[in-house]
Amino acid sequence: MHVRRPATLASLAAELGVSRTTVSNAYNRPDQLSPELRRRVLETARRLGYPGPDPVARSLRTRKAGAVGLLLTENLSYAFRDPAALAFLEGVALACEGAGQGLHLVPVNPEREDITAVHRAGVDGFIVYSVPDDDPHLAAVLSRPVPTVVCDQPRVEGVDRVGIDDRAAIAQLAQRLITLGHRKVGVLCMRLARDRNDGFAAIDRQRTAHFHVQKARLAALNEAFSAAGVDWAGVPVVERFDHSQASGASAAAQLLDKHRDVTALICTSDILALGALAEAKRRALRVPQDLSITGFDGIADAERAGLTTVRQPMLDKGRAAGTLLLDTVDRGRPREITLPTELIVGSTSAQPRTAEERWFGP
Amino acid sequence: MHVRRPATLASLAAELGVSRTTVSNAYNRPDQLSPELRRRVLETARRLGYPGPDPVARSLRTRKAGAVGLLLTENLSYAFRDPAALAFLEGVALACEGAGQGLHLVPVNPEREDITAVHRAGVDGFIVYSVPDDDPHLAAVLSRPVPTVVCDQPRVEGVDRVGIDDRAAIAQLAQRLITLGHRKVGVLCMRLARDRNDGFAAIDRQRTAHFHVQKARLAALNEAFSAAGVDWAGVPVVERFDHSQASGASAAAQLLDKHRDVTALICTSDILALGALAEAKRRALRVPQDLSITGFDGIADAERAGLTTVRQPMLDKGRAAGTLLLDTVDRGRPREITLPTELIVGSTSAQPRTAEERWFGP
DNA sequence: ATGAAAGCGCTAACAC
DNA sequence: GTGTTAGCGCTTTCAT
């Protein structure tokens, strides 16, 4: 039993006694040759076990890979657990599907700085989802001579972007709390930089955050509460590296342990807020009577929990990113798409108790 | 302003006055040249804007794409909605990540027969998830000279497979219902073939089903209930093309409208079962007193609903498929991995009411 | 440690 | 309608 070298377009042509062009045409331009000849070519191909033009060779020649690369902040498997990331992914998939493009998920380990996967990906462009401004993978992507679209963060000079107005969105939420009368608030936020800092984040860390979305939201909160006469330096901000309900719960615990007087917990994601909700329950704090809690994103579980939050259209974001990347027409000028958000007033926010109520009951 | 042709490895070599080999080595085999020279190469690359070796050209040369193709039954976007498919995806992603391989999702439209995306995908192998035996995309995959692993269905001679023992799994469930005393049952199943048939599926259609998993489950139910003295020809089986809770609800409605006497609804997926549950509620049928309902898969929502079902390890399936494909070692003999399943007895199954109870209440 | 030569398998001008 | 020519950009023996 011998190992036959696999047939190639050239060997097929030789076998048939025609040129390689003809064989190529048989596959790619049926109208360029007689149906009869084409039939013969395909027939012989079958006989020889020729599987059709090699996609990689074709890509090299045509300079088209037929796929879009997707780079996520986290391990791939994380993305499949986070509802927001998932909706984004679905949107991207929708766009790819519509254009008949493959979706190449780039394997990334945020702990290690191995960017070879970015260099190895045979794709026509990249979508980068929500990474820190100093992410080495992002740098690797930008070094490649293919179009790129960044979703959410960071904003990069000359690179297309789709996102929301984070400042305006959370300012609306802040305004709501301020109007309700909250002056002693605490904040639970996501990772601010690539290093793990599970604990309080002082102003300096807030200001130098590498995750622009978190940074923008904190800055907007700062502005809003400062304008309402609150000294931002006194507002506790607790940061968590991992994005999970457990993180939200522990962050809430950490904050409440040290600042028993806060009347509202502003969380920069619904996941964190749901965790905070759980912690509040554990402590027998009534929400919203004893404590208001707000989230961000508008995921299904948040809605179910009646969370006061900001809804952002994640699926549309994904689709917009995909469309932007695939839309070869008016590429050139850097483009930016800002999607609308909507304040959702749920049942987890209300007026704070007065000092009296605090001591003598509602 | 002029468009400079992008730098290539060759142009870089020319600029430096060294051979292409040396430049290549600078990237791929740092130990093959002096640190000093390497530094100079990389430095010049930066200056010229050379992004490093082109991944496609490299793939052509090395015959390695560094990515795994994934072919799903449904639209890509569907996969991000179905919890079972999602868990599978996550498992595959985990395996890919571990091996530093990209995950290339092949865009497929099950309605159209466009298999070009399969031919265009630059991948080192394919994972095919749960497709009908006559799926043209599957045929396209098998025609390509790369290793393939099929998950669930269909079983293909000589192709690696990972799955569960569908017959045994559902037989266990059937046995449970039989033991409880159910003799008048109905079945809700998923798509049996590529054509849309939203309605009753007669025995002939069951027998000629192209989705082997559904076929096997129906056959096992047939066997179990026949052995219990039930005439399978009289058991209504309702099929749905779309896999959604809405489908489950409408299928349940269709079945119950025509067969008011069934005491149990066996669904071949949790999604369908959750829909059936909703329809039962709508009809003010108490579950399980008036009607037992069972599912299949063991998704989180099913557990939450207390569904009696069969749990299968979807994440492990994905991981196993990935590992099998990536494990180049003992390829050769076709391999088959069968994962264990577990019967979950929830609160949606109980003894059927007796005829008396039916008329006079519990 | 570095270079020369030989393709990987294919497609796109352009000629006939 | 079919063939000729010329690479796409890279890696890899094998010499030196």
Automatic annotation (TrEMBL), chains A, B:
Keywords: DNA-binding, Transcription, Transcription regulation. The keyword Metal-binding does not apply. CDD domains: HTH_LacI (cd01392), PBP1_LacI-like (cd06279). GO terms for molecular function: DNA-binding transcription factor activity; transcription cis-regulatory region binding. Pfam families: Peripla_BP_3. The keyword Transcription applies. Residues 7-62 form the HTH lacI-type domain. InterPro entries: HTH_LacI (IPR000843), LacI/GalR-like_sensor (IPR046335), Lambda_DNA-bd_dom_sf (IPR010982), Peripla_BP_I (IPR028082). It comes from the Bacteria. PANTHER family: LACI-RELATED TRANSCRIPTIONAL REPRESSOR (PTHR30146), TRANSCRIPTIONAL REGULATORY PROTEIN (PTHR30146:SF138). This is LacI family transcriptional regulator.
